Amino acid sequence: MMTDKLTRGVHHIGLTVPDLLDRLGIEANIRAPRDLVMIGGPVERERGFVLHTDDYHGEHSIEVGRGLALTATRDILEALAQANGQPRRAVLALGYAGWGAGQLENEIKENVWLTCDADEQLIFDADYAGKWSRALGKLGVDPERLSFAAGRA
What we know:
Number of helices: 5
Number of domains: 1
Largest sheet: 7 strands, mixed
Distance between the termini: 48 Å
């Protein structure tokens, strides 16, 4: 049975990438990443997405940022299982969160979201508990000074 784990706002399912590959019948090389499988969102939690460095170029990979790509097909899982051909760094998530057309862009314009420049260390390292604080730090925001109360001035 898979159980969801919450680590300071970051969800993972308590399963490693090799465990998932094994469940899918994909034989993993000893060099397969040992990372945890993350929860990408509440929609289609049986569907996987791999955010990875762009040194892996699958037929269905989509460039999503400088040095980053996203692949949601079995070929990326087979690449992760092999010693050669896998991306240098990757994170696997099951499920996604969705927005309507233009909704996320509008929420960002309305300052509903805090955004910072992505960097490889922040995206791919295993310090799940510290990512939120480090991302805020990139913006010069001290998490201890944040208020969770809403209001209008």
